[in-house]
Design a protein that fits this description.
Blueprint lengths: L13 H21 L8 H23 L10 H16 L3 H6 L1 H28 L14
The structure holds fe (ii) ion.
């Protein structure tokens, strides 16, 4: 399955939807890279995407977690566990492994991120942010 953003994935909180689209884009680039020719050196691109993903995910999770007080009925314990699982996976890969096992790592990373998006962004996030917030924060997403 190729990861492509679909407006049906929106949670209707504009900045969260924008960030989710960005994560889809990074995951899409990762998937393309993981399908690239195995005999080419892609160390720089893999590392760049990995760093982008970590930086972006950290900011995005902070922004989502700021919404916690507005959704007291959500299962935030589980939600935070899922956020942490991505950061932990991304930040514990040794760079020499990435270098020597580029094709293997790019595929593993691409699969992990795709599974995480399906399990978290398309399930947990949508369940969480479809609950009724304490205050009106839902703004229609124009983009
Ligand atoms: Fe989340």
């Amino acid at each position: 399955m190729t990861l492509k953003w679909n407006d049906a994935y929106k949670v209707n909180i504009s900045h969260v939807d924008k960030q989710h689209r960005e994560i889809f884009e990074i995951a899409y680039q990762l998937e393309n890279l993981s399908n690239a020719r195995l005999n080419m050196d892609h160390y720089y691109e893999i590392n760049k995407l990995l760093e982008q993903l970590i930086t972006y995910a950290v900011t995005h999770f902070e922004d989502e977690e700021k919404l916690m007080p507005l959704y007291p009925d959500a299962d935030w314990e589980q939600h935070l566990r899922e956020h942490n699982s991505l950061i932990q996976y991304l930040s514990t890969v040794p760079s020499d492994y990435i270098y020597w096992k580029q094709a293997e790592f790019a595929k593993a990373l691409s699969h992990f991120v795709r599974d995480w998006i399906e399990q978290h962004m398309l399930l947990t996030d949508r369940i969480t942010f479809n609950l009724e917030p304490l205050e009106a924060i839902h703004k229609p997403s124009n983009s």
